[in-house]
Write a structure and sequence with these properties.
The chain has 319 residues and is an alpha+beta fold. Helices cover 34% and strands 17% of the residues. The protein folds into 2 domains: 50 residues, no CATH class; 268 residues, Heat Shock Protein 90.
Length: 319
């Protein structure tokens, strides 16, 4: 006789679930090996995830939009204009435009202040860490095993703005340059924007918009010769199974997601991860891996291999 008890994953609105009327001492989480006690950091992360209005929507009342990096704002506006030249917002003043995209809101003092999303997207690193002390973005390129890294980009270097917008485009240029993707010809025209390029845009944007910026260790992107690894603080809000299945979108930072969507990056249908697996299958590369680290600091890791599947794996799949 076998008795099977299926316990569904609690919705984020229900978490944390605890015993003995003790939220910080009585919250436990289950992994494949058993239950373990959650740290105070993990419980606070669950509390942040409860609300429908995500943390990036709040207004930073002690800052003004004058503290945004103006070059970043203009770069964003130029991309939006080139993507949708007839959009009704593209000719607005900066102040009105930033309000429309969710980067700024009117405060209690009737002055315009950054939202947390606006600060992350357009602010300078020294301003961002005042609100998010654990904020850190790190790209590491390790193409030569004899060298610790062949290229590195850090938000705290002081050599560039350190915000999400600039990090995204700098890193995207690096990972697409190093990934060996042959261009395609359609009707005699060279097509550089392949399904692999689109999949890489999606996975990089998802990494950033699902980051819990209050959690230590920050975002880490590692580019190796035949592998790309993307790590972000925070668990998967819809759960690992639903993430791979697709169909549900629940970003940790909804305002950031909207800003990326406006410049044709990311999507809200929850189909990004299934499409990633489909693209990798079509290229005959090893299947992507999604891992969750659920100990002291919760992290989500996506591992993309550019190695061809071995003959043994192909045979197993056919069976």
């Amino acid at each position: 006789m076998v008795i099977v008890i299926e316990v569904p994953m609690a919705r984020r609105e229900q978490k944390p679930i605890f015993v003995n009327n003790d939220m910080f001492g009585g919250t436990f989480k289950r992994n494949h090996e058993g239950d373990y006690h959650c740290t105070e950091l993990q419980v606070k992360s669950m509390l942040r995830d409860q609300t429908e209005s995500t943390m990036d929507m709040r207004i930073i009342e002690d800052m003004t939009i004058a503290q945004f990096d103006r070059d970043t704002v203009q770069s964003y506006r130029n991309r939006h204009r080139s993507f949708k030249p007839g959009h009704p917002w593209v000719n607005l003043s900066d102040e009105d435009y930033l309000q429309k995209i969710g980067a700024a809101e009117m405060g209690k003092d009737r002055r315009l202040h950054p939202t947390a999303a606006g600060l992350l997207m357009f602010g300078e690193e020294n301003r961002i860490v005042r609100v998010y002390p654990e904020y850190f973005l790190d790209y590491r390129e390790i193409l030569d095993p004899t060298i610790r890294w062949t290229d590195r980009l850090q938000s705290s270097s002081g050599e560039w703005s350190g915000n999400l917008f600039d990090f995204y485009f700098r890193v995207y240029q690096k990972i697409t340059k190093n990934v060996k993707i042959p261009f395609k010809m359609v009707g005699g025209d060279r097509i550089d924007d392949t399904p692999v390029h689109r999949a890489l845009r999606e996975v990089l944007a998802n990494c950033l918009v699902n980051t819990d910026f209050f959690v230590p260790r920050g975002v880490v992107i590692k580019q190796e010769d035949d592998m790309l690894i993307l790590e972000n603080p925070g668990s998967i809000r819809v759960g690992k199974y639903q993430m791979k299945l697709g169909g549900q979108s629940d970003p940790r930072n909804k305002a950031l997601m909207k800003m990326f969507n406006l410049i044709d990056i990311g999507e809200r249908a929850g189909s990004g991860v299934p499409e990633l697996f489909a693209v990798w299958e079509n290229e005959d590369w090893e299947e992507p891996r999604i891992e969750e680290q659920l100990d002291y600091v919760e992290r989500t890791t996506v591992i993309l291999s550019f190695k061809q599947k071995s003959a043994e794996k192909k045979a197993l799949k056919k069976r």
